[in-house]
Amino acid sequence: MKKTLVISTVVVISIIFTLSWGWAQEGRGNGRLVGVVKDTDGNPLEGVQINLEYLKFDHKLSTVSDKKGTWGFIGLGKGMIKLTAVKEGFLESVLSLDVSGVAQNPKQFITMKPISQIEATAQKGDESR
To answer: Which helix (H) or strand (E) holds 52?
Structure first.
């Protein structure tokens, strides 16, 4: 009787650890995602914060673009993500992607529009009235 109880307890504990390990791995894998961020004139943007957020579970990553505008993430799992590019003086850029957790994903190209261009366009519209 005691032996059966011990075996049952070990099995239950093993199942709990296995499930918790699986949940801890959500959003993690061998996938990679890289890209380039530029302004509307085609110039690379340095210092853009790139935020990656999985839509199905709570897993978020962040990186910053280098002087060539390049950025990247490694160790990604499969799933739908929201990719957000943020830099002061520019409109926020948002992409939704389905990433692969086992390979290199297609390179992402992000173009950010300066807020000054938006303001100039709005002022021209007001002057034509």
So the answer is: strand 49-54
pTM of the prediction?
A: 0.71
3-state class (DSSP) for residue 46 = coil
C-alpha distances in angstroms, 54 versus 3, 76, 106, 118, 125? 44, 10, 17, 30, 39
Measure the CA angle with vertex 82, ends 86 and 33; round to 5°: 85
Q: Which amino acid is at 38?
A: K
Nearest residue to 83 (alpha-carbon basis) of 34, 23, 121, 10 = 34
Q: Which residue has the tokens 């709990």?
A: 16
Q: Which three-class secondary structure string do you get for 65-126?
A: CCCCCEEEEEEECCEEEEEEEECCCECCEEEEEEECCCCECCCEEEEECEHHHHHHHHHHHH
C-beta of residue 72 within 8 angstroms of C-beta of residue 63 = yes
**pLDDT grade for 129, boundaries at 50, 70 and 90:** low
